[in-house]
């Protein structure tokens, strides 16, 4: 991405950064700080979309060159970490707790020889990043989903509408709509009334 | 934004490191971006060397929380992202080890298990300690072998050896040895397959 495109500054931002041009923030949305973009390098036409009334504060968007993150209307994302090389979609009204990790990629090749090669390469890169080396699988967080703090959502997972994910759960499989899941690995512990 | 400049400005150069820390060629240690934190805030080791780091390592925003007799060895081409290393005895990390964001590795309990001893220890840790000695607590070395990958939000507890090429999934709590080339997940972490 063209560095000149990092032009917009946020008012009263404690971090000395700017907002990339391929970030689409609805004027009614809240974006707390440009710190969110210190690991952001998406070259997609829209790398982050923040919908009407959505909030995103200290969340770090570790978004690779082809990554696209979308945050739906009235969704609330506190200080999460989103690791995205393909697509991460957070639905309308979703609530995401602090230190939640949502990842669509392991960021490293599984093969040991290739991984060693990638680590040697990244040590010579000025930013020293592990770059686009995994095989990403998109993640979808449905509408009205609530994710408790420090949970991990692993690559390829789809969380159905209205589900609740307990704090510190590790979600490895798809979650049916309107269920409560908890544990590491996470299991269904309750079905919600609708 | 000139990202490179920003990243570099947070790097710890060899002359800023404590004198008993050895940093290999082309290895970098960066501080946290968030104010008030730095990697050696709780570094108390008196050993020399206390920390030996190999070549080509990228150690972003990590904490060395180390006691007076603690020693950490890190091999070549490791890549850590904002992790917490709590060490009272010994932590050995091999080559090509990747550890993900917000993971904690500890080789000690930091307090005794016996309730009576813990009261004595709590007083000894308090502002009213008056020079009393702390009570002993369990500590066992942690060994992370070559080519290990550890995901984000994981926890690795004392006495654990993680075998060569193992994959520790995000959020795992590792309380037992991990066999080489296996994939572990869960709390407590259990083998779920091979790499």
Describe what you observe in this structure:
The complex is a heterodimer of chains A (194) and B (195). Chain A has 194 residues and is mainly beta. Chain A contains 1 helix and 19 strands. In chain A, the strands form 3 sheets. In chain A, strands 2-4-7-10-13-16-18-19 form an 8-stranded mixed beta sheet, with no helix packed on it. In chain A, strands 1-3-6-9-12-15 form a 6-stranded parallel beta sheet, with no helix packed on it. Chain A is globular, with a radius of gyration of 17 Å. Chain B is built from 2 helices and 20 strands. Chain B has helices at residues 3-9, 115-125; strands spanning 11-12, 21-23, 28-30, 51-53, 58-60, 63-66, 71-74, 79-81, 84-87, 90-93, 98-99, 104-106, 142-144, 149-150, 155-156, 161-162, 167-168, 173-174, 182-185, 190-194. Chain B has a 9-stranded mixed beta sheet with strand order 1-3-5-8-11-14-17-19-20. In chain B, a hairpin with a 4-residue loop joins β19 (182-185) and β20 (190-194). Chain B is globular. The chains are: A mainly beta (194), B mainly beta (195). The A-B interface holds A 3, 6, 14-18, 34-35, 38, 81, 83, 99, 101, 103, 106, 108, 110, 112, 115-116, 119-120, 122-124, 126-128, 130, 150-152, 154, 168-170, 172, 183-185 and B 1-4, 6-7, 26, 28, 33, 35, 56-58, 60, 77-79, 96, 98, 101-102, 147, 149, 151-153, 165, 167, 169-173, 185-187, 195.
């Amino acid at each position: 991405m063209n560095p000149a495109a990092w032009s917009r500054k946020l008012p009263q931002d404690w971090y000395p950064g700017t907002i990339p041009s391929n970030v689409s923030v609805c004027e009614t949305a809240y974006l707390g700080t440009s710190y969110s973009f210190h690991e952001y390098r998406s070259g997609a036409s829209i790398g982050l979309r923040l919908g009407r009334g959505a909030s995103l504060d200290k969340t770090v968007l570790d978004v690779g060159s082809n990554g696209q993150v979308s945050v739906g209307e009235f969704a609330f994302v506190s200080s999460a970490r989103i690791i995205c090389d393909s697509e991460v979609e957070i639905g309308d009204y979703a609530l995401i707790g602090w230190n939640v990790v949502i990842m669509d990629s392991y960021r490293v090749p599984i093969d040991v020889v290739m991984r060693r090669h990638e680590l040697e390469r990244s040590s010579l890169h000025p930013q020293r990043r592990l770059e686009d080396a995994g095989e990403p699988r998109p993640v979808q967080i449905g509408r009205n989903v609530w994710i408790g703090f420090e949970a991990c959502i692993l690559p390829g997972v789809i969380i159905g509408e209205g589900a609740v994910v307990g704090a510190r759960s590790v979600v490895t499989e798809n979650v049916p709509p309107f269920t409560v899941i908890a544990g590491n690995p996470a299991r269904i512990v309750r079905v919600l009334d609708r | 934004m000139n990202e490179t400049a920003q990243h570099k400005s947070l790097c710890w150069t060899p002359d800023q490191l404590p004198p008993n820390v050895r940093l290999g060629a082309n290895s970098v240690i960066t501080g946290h971006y968030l104010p008030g934190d730095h990697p050696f805030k709780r570094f108390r080791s008196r050993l020399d060397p206390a920390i030996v780091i190999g070549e080509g390592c990228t150690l972003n925003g990590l904490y060395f929380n180390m006691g007076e007799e603690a020693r950490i060895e890190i091999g070549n081409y490791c890549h850590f992202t904002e992790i917490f290393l709590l060490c009272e005895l010994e932590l050995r990390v091999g080559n090509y080890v990747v550890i993900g964001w917000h993971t904690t590795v500890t080789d000690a309990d930091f307090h005794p298990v016996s309730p009576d001893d813990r009261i004595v220890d709590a007083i000894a840790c308090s502002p009213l300690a008056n020079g009393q000695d702390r009570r002993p607590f369990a500590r066992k070395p942690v060994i992370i072998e070559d080519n290990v990958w550890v995901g984000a939000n994981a926890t690795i507890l004392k006495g654990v050896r993680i075998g060569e090429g193992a994959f520790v999934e995000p959020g795992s709590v590792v309380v037992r040895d991990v066999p080489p080339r296996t994939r572990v997940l869960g709390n407590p972490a259990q083998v779920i397959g091979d790499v």
